[in-house]
Design brief:
Layout lengths: L2 H4 L14 H13 L1 H18 L2 H14 L2
Length: about 70
Amino acid sequence: PGIAEIIQDKVDGYLFQPGNFSSFKSKLECIESQKKEVSEVAKRGVKRAKECFNTDKATKGYLDVVKSYL
């Protein structure tokens, strides 16, 4: 999946249009002006990353698939 499928803008991260400096600048200004919200977004982002990229969970999933073919 791409970044836009993993990150939800202003929920668990921040998105801007790739290659669009104006979009990037606007997002940075938004982040600078909403520091309390940014802290909460960061916490949710860390939680989501741990959920989505958990190696134990991924390994178990792969093993379950392999076992289903045995």
